[in-house]
Amino acid sequence: MKISTVEEYILNAPNGNEMLLFLREILKETELTESIKWSSPVYSVNGKNIVGMGSFKSYAGLWFFQGALLTDKAGVLINAQEDKTKALRQWRFSTLEEINSRLVLEYVNEAIKNQQAGKEIKADRNKPIIIPEELQEAFEENPELENAFQQFSLGCKREYTEYILEAKKTETRKNRVEKVIPMIFQKKGLNDKYKK
């Protein structure tokens, strides 16, 4: 289901509708602009993403796009993907009572100030791309596949290779290679459907 408004997102959220409504009211007190990106509510200033809001099975939460720069005086932020995520941090809420509006506003306002001051953790664009063994085998079997893969930008190549390498089991990695082959031939990036 394609979500086109924040209201629609909250209405269809699997958990924490009241928490999302409350968080939204807090975020609307700021200068942030509300939109839907990647099928979720995202709040930005001057075209830069500051904070997103989401609902998950056991919690609702905020994610700060440059959360690693926040002072986090209350110690509430977590890195959900320790080895992958440099800047993004989450703040999870299990109940409405856990949400302290004053504290949330402090964190959001600090994130806005950091962005306006130009503070930013940038992705490591020079990190070498590691071609998974399973993808290399597919290239050897089909040189046209490798040629199609080489047409992608470095970022798209990295998305594909990391997606395959994330799988711990060989069987899963092989399944992922099979899944992405048609996308590579169609010249589609792995995450194109989430990009606007």
| Terminal-residue CA separation | 16 Å
Regarding quaternary structure, how should these chains be classified?
Answer: single chain
DSSP summary: helix tally:
7
Strands, total number: 5
Going by helix content, strand content and strand pairing, the class is alpha+beta
User: What would you report as the Rg, rounded to the nearest angstrom?
Assistant: 19 Å
Q: Roughly what fraction of the amino acids lie in strands?
A: 5-15%
- The neighbouring-strand order within the major sheet is 1-2-3-4-5
Q: Which tags fit this structure?
A:
196 residues, alpha+beta, 5-stranded antiparallel β-sheet, 7 helices, 5 strands
Can you tell me about this structure?
This protein has helices spanning 6-11, 17-27, 101-116, 133-141, 143-150, 154-165, 170-185, and strands at residues 33-37, 40-45, 48-55, 60-64, 89-93. The chain is α+β, with helices and mostly antiparallel strands and 196 residues long. A five-stranded antiparallel β-sheet has the order 1-2-3-4-5. The two termini are 16 Å apart.
